[in-house]
Amino acid sequence: MSRILLIEDNEMNRDAISRLLERRGFTLLTAPDGEEGVRLCGETLPDLVLMDLGLPGIDGFEATRRIKADPATQGIPVVALTARALTSDREAAFEAGCDDYDTKPVDLTRLVAKIRQLLGREGDAP
What we know:
It contains 5 helices and 5 strands. By secondary structure, it is α/β, with parallel strands linked by helices. The protein has one domain: Response regulator (Rossmann fold, 3-Layer(aba) Sandwich). Strand 4 (78-82), helix 4 and strand 5 form a beta-alpha-beta unit. The longest helix has 13 residues, at 11-23. Residues 3-119 form the Response regulatory domain.
């Protein structure tokens, strides 16, 4: 079972996304901010990170840079998950090291497909 770290400051979003992905067979770890997310990522080494970009403290861009700068976590795929839908935000997410980008509100089918692709499990049932 794949472990996903969801770094999201909005508690309602965190709970809803966690429940939806758990129903799809994923194990979820959560962090409410960038600092905690980077720390938890290094401690637990999840299979994938879902990163909100608009986090308090260090934002998702900086948290992603820190995850990708650490040899222990640099290979973990990071998906930017954000309400920011501008092309410049997408480009900035990729420049920070994100492996993919998805927008809120979450389209669960699309998000799960991206997660499965990044985990090399495209053929798995949704």
